[in-house]
């Protein structure tokens, strides 16, 4: 007959668990790979000596934390560094700058004399010329874009009459084969080497085109060039935007222009002549604030130096606010196909004025022919907004620079135009540079560099390594659990042995002593 085994209780369970935790902590101190911990757990030295190593360990921990925080601040605050790429960029791999030329005459006298007083065209004429409304006795009439577009075409000097002679890449060109009519904040102007409107804008293309709608016309084959993608490997002949053919005046752009001073009605400045702007082919020019003047009867030579900014793919994982640039596929504009800072600002200004004034300025982005154009009576609304966006900062457009962008620096000189051939071949062509340096945005401190710096500081002050981290995880999780199971097994084993021996003796079975 089997007899029941008496149940054995485990008193003072909490004390045992507490003692077990202390034993586990003491075992970690004696066997840790971190420097100095074994002296803290050594019971063979005096309490004063152990306290000394406690202070030493705390001190080096604070020092390592301080230096690691410095590395962290540098990593988080200055994650991107702009460096000069040692590899030169060939001139043939970047486009010739887009050149926008505007006659300062906002409206031709011959066209203004045909406009009836008090008509819609008269109101558009006053808005274009910027006449002060205080000197007017009647209110202006606001019109839609379809009316303003027709007015600009009738009142502005056409490119075919402005451009007398053109020469590019040492070849005489038909000016209308290389220049587009383009809308700017200074009126209808002429632009050389811009991208085709199909690659510049979204929306209805008929509102953005002023010349032929054919992409493969006499102007050449349109290429979807962007600073980030660049040119295709096989560039079709006679394509645009045209790459830089070389260095020197002879292979650059030469233009002779007709100012038509006798046909001036109102000027955008206090003089006669032209405004010229060099800009990227994918940007809408802002002539009023950034263009330089070319006086009639003078010869102006402009030396251009391209500046190329690129970015490493490694900085894509860095937040935009920290790297301070935007990749093309990270921000989609509503009106422009390609993101640039100036395109973004132009679109933002248009939205702000449309929201506050219910109209837009004639040169601002629009997608329909029914867009309401601001008249002179709306100046009290849009002029303070334009000032606030430029100066006060109360209305800001959060437009960061593009990570890939190209700009053109210029140095110009002017002399009175004399007699003789001004298309003389440049005999010093070989002295001009053939390559330019580009600037690349890259990671100043990446995760690998941050990890290396942190590990080096922890190793220097504390002897910390990945094994040290594994030890800590082991002593917190695995070892307490294993020790608990081991103690439970040791306590149950004698009970099981006693019960088994008693039962087998009653059954007449010989049992060998239990051995764990």
Quickly list its features:
516 residues, alpha+beta, four-stranded mixed β-sheet, disordered C terminus
Structural class by SSE content: alpha+beta
Radius of gyration: 39 Å
Strand tally is: 19
Q: Treating each run of at least 4 consecutive H or I residues as one helix, how many helices?
A: 15
Main beta sheet, described? 5 strands, antiparallel
Spatial gap, N to C terminus: 27 Å
Verbal overview:
The chain is α+β, with helices and mostly antiparallel strands and 516 residues long. Helix content is 37%, strand content 19%. The strands form six sheets. A five-stranded antiparallel beta sheet has the order 7-8-3-14-15. It has a four-stranded mixed beta sheet with strand order 1-19-16-17, with no helix packed on it. Strands 6-5-12 form a three-stranded antiparallel beta sheet. Helix 3 runs antiparallel to helix 14 and helix 12 packs antiparallel against helix 13. The protein starts with 12 loop residues before the first helix and ends in a 9-residue tail after the last helix. The C terminus is likely disordered.
Provide a short characterization of the protein structure.
By secondary structure, the protein is of the alpha+beta class. The protein has helices spanning 13-31, 37-41, 47-77, 109-112, 120-129, 145-155, 159-162, 175-178, 197-200, 287-290, 320-323, 341-357, 379-392, 447-462, 466-507; strands at 80-84, 89-90, 98-103, 105-108, 163-168, 171-173, 179-184, 187-192, 216-217, 220-222, 239-240, 253-257, 264-267, 274-279, 292-294, 298-311, 405-416, 435-436, 438-443. Strand 7 and strand 8 form a beta hairpin.
């Amino acid at each position: 007959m089997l007899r029941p085994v008496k149940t054995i209780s485990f008193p003072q369970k909490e004390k045992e668990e507490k003692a077990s935790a202390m034993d586990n902590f003491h075992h970690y101190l004696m066997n840790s790979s971190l420097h100095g911990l074994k002296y803290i757990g050594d019971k063979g030295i005096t309490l004063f000596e152990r306290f000394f190593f406690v202070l030493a360990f705390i001190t080096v921990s604070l020092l390592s934390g301080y230096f690691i925080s410095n590395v962290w601040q540098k990593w988080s605050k200055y994650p991107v560094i702009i460096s000069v790429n040692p590899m030169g960029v060939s001139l043939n791999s970047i486009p010739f700058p887009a050149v926008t030329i505007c006659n300062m005459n906002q409206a031709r006298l011959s066209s203004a004399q045909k406009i009836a007083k008090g008509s819609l065209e008269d109101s558009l004429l006053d808005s274009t010329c910027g006449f002060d409304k205080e000197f007017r006795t009647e209110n202006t009439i606001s019109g839609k874009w379809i009316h303003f577009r027709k007015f600009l075409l009738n009142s502005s000097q056409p490119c075919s009459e402005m451009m007398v002679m053109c020469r590019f890449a040492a070849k005489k060109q038909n000016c209308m084969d290389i220049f587009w009519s383009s809308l700017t904040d200074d009126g209808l102007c002429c632009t050389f080497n811009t991208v085709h409107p199909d690659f510049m804008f979204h929306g209805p293309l008929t509102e953005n085109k002023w010349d032929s709608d054919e992409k493969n016309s006499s102007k050449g084959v349109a290429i979807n060039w962007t600073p980030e993608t660049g040119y295709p490997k096989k560039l079709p002949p006679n394509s645009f935007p045209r790459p830089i053919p070389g260095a020197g005046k002879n292979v650059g752009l030469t233009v002779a222009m007709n100012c038509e001073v006798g046909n001036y009605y109102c000027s955008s400045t206090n003089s006669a002549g032209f405004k010229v702007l060099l800009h990227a082919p994918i940007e809408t020019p802002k002539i009023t604030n950034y263009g330089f003047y070319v006086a009639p009867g003078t010869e102006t030579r402009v030396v251009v130096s391209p500046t190329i900014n690129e970015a490493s793919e490694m900085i894509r994982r860095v937040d935009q606010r920290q790297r301070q640039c935007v990749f093309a596929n990270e921000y989609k504009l509503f009106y422009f196909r390609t993101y640039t800072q100036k395109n973004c600002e132009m679109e933002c200004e248009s939205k702000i004025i449309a929201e506050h004034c219910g109209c837009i300025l004639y040169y601002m982005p629009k997608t329909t022919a029914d867009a309401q154009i601001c008249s002179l009576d709306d100046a009290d609304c849009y002029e303070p907004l334009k000032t606030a966006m430029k100066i006060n900062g109360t209305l800001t457009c959060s437009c960061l620079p593009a990570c890939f962008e190209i700009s053109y620096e210029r140095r110009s000189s002017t002399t009175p135009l004399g007699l003789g051939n001004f298309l003389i071949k440049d005999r010093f062509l070989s002295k001009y540079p053939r390559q330019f340096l580009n600037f690349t945005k890259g990671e100043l401190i990446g995760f690998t560099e941050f990890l290396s710096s942190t590990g080096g500081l922890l190793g220097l002050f504390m002897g910390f390594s990945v094994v040290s981290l594994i030890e800590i995880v082991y002593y917190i999780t695995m070892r307490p659990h294993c020790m608990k199971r081991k103690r439970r097994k040791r306590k149950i084993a004698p009970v099981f042995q006693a019960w088994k021996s008693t039962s087998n003796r009653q059954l007449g079975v010989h049992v060998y002593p239990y051995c764990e």
